[in-house]
Design a protein that fits this description.
It contains 2 helices and 4 strands. By secondary structure, it is of the alpha+beta class. Bound molecules: ligand LWBT4IAB. The ligand O=C(O)CC1=CCC(=O)O1 binds next to strand 1 and helix 1. This is Muconolactone Delta-isomerase.
Amino acid sequence: MLFKVEMVVNIPLDADPAVMDAIKKQEKEYSQNLQKSGKWRHIWRVAGQYANVSIFDVESNEELHNLLLALPLYPYMEMKVEALCRHPSSIREDDR
Ligand SMILES: O=C(O)CC1=CCC(=O)O1
């Protein structure tokens, strides 16, 4: 099951920079492990924003929910999730 997830990161101005740097490091490792597994298929920075657009490929809504809630930056994020399905004009066999 494919999902588009838009994540906007809002870090409070009074947050401790050292603590946030540690959380961002954890976030990167968590994200890259999921990308290697194929569950986090794509991630793009939204130009000019502390935000990303990502594509997830998961087995269920519940799996996506659990992956997103486990993001180290989750407490600082706003998210929008949309379900995707294959476009009839797609030439990519792995779009499903
Ligand atoms: O910087 C972001 O957009 C938040 C984020 C998600 C995965 C990651 O590595 O950073």
